[in-house]
Amino acid sequence: MKVYFLKENTKEYVIYPEPEDKTAYHEIDVSEDVDLNAKRLVEKGGKMVLVDAPENEFYEWDGKAWAIDKAKQTEILAKEKEELILQLADKTDALKAGLLVGYPQTEIDSFYRQEKEALAWQADNKAETPMLKKIAELRGVPFEVLVEKVIEKANILADTIGGIIGIRQKIEDRINAATEQAELDAIKNEVEKWQLQKAN
User: Fold this and answer.
1) Which residues contact 4 (CB under 8 A, 6 or more apart)?
2) If 66 and its partner were Cys, which of 59, 106, 112, 151 is the partner (CB 3.0–4.6 Å)?
3) Phi, psi of 61, rounded to the nearest 5 degrees
4) Rounded distance, CA 50 to CA 120, Å?
5) pLDDT tens across 19-38, in order?
């Protein structure tokens, strides 16, 4: 079939109807099974030919192949870093959320208050602990046992979240320091596979 590619912008083409002013178009014979959206018309060896489209808009045809100049490579790398840092942040939030599966939001919101009261009572057993006293009373557990459980849980959570934050910051430092796409690809793979280590 005949395809008419606009000379001013070869990304645009017409198959039917034929354009009235054919001088504004390159007329190319193309097999009907060719995916034109995956091709680009370029000049190669003095002829207009169809080649595979580049993977993104940063590539330019140099007469022989698609190439990216240094300035555009830097621009692409900066964009990739930005996207990977956002992906890393999302993964960090997902890992933290995974720690709290099964807890209602009301209880999660109370964790800081529970820890504060437990630590205050541990330092001075005359400290006011209205939330913990009510929990212990209605749960039916000794107050001292509840205080120990709250502090133990807070310490485990702090250690685990501290680990998540430390790893996230280390990975972000590596992202910012990367100078090659291959480095970012390797880091992206790590981020996708990142999981919390289960306690022994």
Assistant:
1) 13, 14, 15, 18, 19, 22, 25, 26, 27, 28
2) 59
3) -80, 125
4) 75
5) 888 889 888 888 888 888 88
